[in-house]
TrEMBL record:
It comes from the Eukaryota. The keyword Phosphoprotein does not apply. Pfam families: Lipase_GDSL. It comes from Neocallimastix californiae. Transmembrane segments: none annotated. GO terms for molecular function: hydrolase activity, acting on ester bonds. PANTHER family: GDSL LIPASE/ACYLHYDROLASE FAMILY PROTEIN (AFU_ORTHOLOGUE AFUA_4G14700) (PTHR45648), GDSL LIPASE_ACYLHYDROLASE FAMILY PROTEIN (AFU_ORTHOLOGUE AFUA_4G14700) (PTHR45648:SF22). The keyword Hydrolase applies. Keywords: Hydrolase. This is SGNH hydrolase-type esterase domain-containing protein.
Amino acid sequence: MSEGKQFSNVWNKYNSLYVFWFGTCDIGWRIKGTNKEIIENLFNVIKRIYDVGARNILILGAPPLYRIPYRKNYNQCKGISDGECIEVLKKEVLEFNNEIIKLSKIFFKKYSYMNLIYYSTVNIFEDIIKNCYEYGFKDCINSWGGNKKRNVSDFFWANSHISYPANKILAKNINELLNSLNK
């Protein structure tokens, strides 16, 4: 697909970035598998792409599921109060992300000829939610919900995912992080 395009001849195993991000569905609606099993599977994939030359890996941690407006729909929250749901999901996200960090350190120690970067989506999401208006949103608690009468750009959440403007902020923040590593 990139043949003849601007970067078709310059991408290679040394300057390509491979990004992994666990989203709301991977954790919130998970039917089977423990956090440890899921993260071990991730690192099996990372090992395979490392073996064929990947040297720049970015792993985005699980987002703060407890902040998502539709959190009560998650399997872990069936039949419990919203307050209990929030606590269950906080624990789930913390354990999930800690497992990523733990296995990242082990992997990097074994395969140090690479860049392996962990990025906390919890931190940036929490900052945006706390400073909603400063980031240009009108609502960081509720979801746009597909209501065409409302402007999705006013919302941080678009259903169970972040909105397009929120993704732009996330991308800009990640880009700044990656650029800072080159200094």
